[in-house]
Amino acid sequence: MSVKNKVATSSLICYFIIVVIFAMVRMLSAFGVFDGLGAEADYIFNVIIQVVILFALSILLFSLFQKNKIKDTFRFFGCKKINGKAVLISIAIGVVVYFLNIFVATFFNSILSLFGYSASSSTTYMESYPFWLFIVNILITAVLPSICEEIAHRGLLLKGMSGLGQAKALILSSLLFGFMHMNIQQFFYATLIGFLVGYLALICDSIYPAMIIHFMNNALSVFAGYSSFNNLGFEKIIESLNVILQSNIILGFLFVVLFLVALVYLLMILIKLLFRETTMKNMKKLQLQIMKQLQKDAYLKELEATKNDEQIEKQNQVTLSFEEFDKLYKENNQKLGLMSKIDKEITFPNKEKMSLVNKILLTGIFVIIAGVTIFTFVWGIL
């Protein structure tokens, strides 16, 4: 088995184990096993899912299977620092994604309702919604998922399978991210968000923008609930949109189209800016590092020639073979912290077909989580 398929196998085995444990915990929760924990049951359940299953198992199991240091696993998963401008741009993208998500969720929920689907009501009615509970909900619903779910899907899955083709890895990891929510209502918009942040993780060569965008989307959703309960006014933005849509169908339709076009256009601009602040700046650093190395090598050769009383011909350009440049590129990439040891092994141009073992693992994963998601749809109809 090739190196690329071996890395993909490690990723898929890890994710298969995660899916099995995750499904078992969800079933136990559905049967009320955690009910004895009281009002804190949901919070404890979410911490177990996020921290223990998605985060810890992804890092530890992959490091074990690849015989890799945990530090290098984090780097391979894309934990590479970004500058302050990139952070701010990612926050802005997260806000845009939140509003786009409202339209996407509303659209797909209306389609589900045409099939007679209605979500089971599990709303907990509260007499008060204090600020401390809002902070707890931000931690559980925004902070933990943005870190743990991204490590499992944009780190373990996307990077693990990227050696077999980035487009294939992006589509599969996005679908699995949608199915992993094991809820038909969340599947559609989670898949689309997964595709977007996965694409950004690839072009930016860092998982941090994906984490920030994920956090902003979830945090704004939590804040909308907090604002609605305490009448802070944030929810009135959404209510105003609904009034416009309901008052005049034609006007509402035109407003929605224009608003969506504006959001998509803004999103494209922000993505370009983010690319410049991450990949482009890293490439400039790498080019500068390589030029310094080439100049150093040329200077040492000139000194050696002078020492031996040899005549050397000065050239305006330094020519290197592809193998020499590739070696120099990878060495400097790793020095700058932009490439892990595993990246060095799987970043070569030839395409690799997915092995039979990986196809079986992937099929098993899809059967489990897609089956549970479809069950939620059938249950909602019944």
Brief digest:
The chain has 13 helices and no strands. The chain is mainly α and 382 residues long. It has one domain (3-279, 355-381).
How many distinct folded domains? Answer: 1
End-to-end gap: 46 Å
Would you identify the regions where 5 or more consecutive residues have pLDDT less than 50?
none
Q: Any idea what the shape is?
A: globular
Helical run tally = 13
Rg from alpha-carbon coordinates:
25 Å
Q: How many runs of DSSP E, i.e. beta strands?
A: 0
- Give the overall average pLDDT: 83
Sheet with the most strands, sense and barrel status? none
Percentage beta strand = under 5%
Tell me roughly what share of residues is in helical segments. Answer: over 70%
Instruction: Write the H/E string, N to C.
Output: HHHHHHHHHHHHH
Q: Class by helix and strand content?
A: mainly alpha
Descriptive notes:
- This protein has 382 residues and is mainly alpha-helical.
- It has one domain (3-279, 355-381).
- 79% of the residues lie in helices and 0% in strands.
- It is built from 13 helices and no strands.
- The two termini are 46 Å apart.
- The mean pLDDT is 83.
Key terms for this structure?
79% helix, mainly alpha, globular, 0% strand, 13 helices, 382 residues
